[in-house]
Amino acid sequence: MITPAYVRTMARYNAEMNRRLYTAAAQLTDEQRKADHGAFWKSIHGTLCHLLWGDTQWMSRFSDWPKPEVPSKQSATMIDDFATLRTRREKADADLIAWADRLDAAWLAEDLVWFSGAAQREMRRPLGFLVAHFFNHQTHHRGQAHALLTAHGLETGDTDLMLIVEPA
Asked: Which CATH number does the domain housing residue 64 bear?
């Protein structure tokens, strides 16, 4: 379904887009970042927290990352301090790139079996399929955060994959 080169490309795109979102979000006050704008995770801060939560949850299944400290429903409030959230995001992105750089096609072809809290049952899916979902989840919620930031008049520059990173 996907290749290690795709995973490496998407990990780098993810890191760059997160850098741009956090740079824009840092221009807002804490009150502005945490204001409920009616988004699924309510606020810019909540959406950014959920993104980190989702990445941490999937990487706890894909690699040796610890599981998030809160359940999904509390993910928007997982980290209250923006500077701490940003620092953890930067570390997660660097760790994600390092993980992607070690990945091989054989691993992507394996199945993962886990208990899904969302589905409340044991699941089995190919890792390549799940990694594609992982990047899709990131793009989806980054789009929400981007819309909230642009509503505040902030810019992140181009968001198109082909303009941001070179293919791996």
From this structure: 1.20.120.450
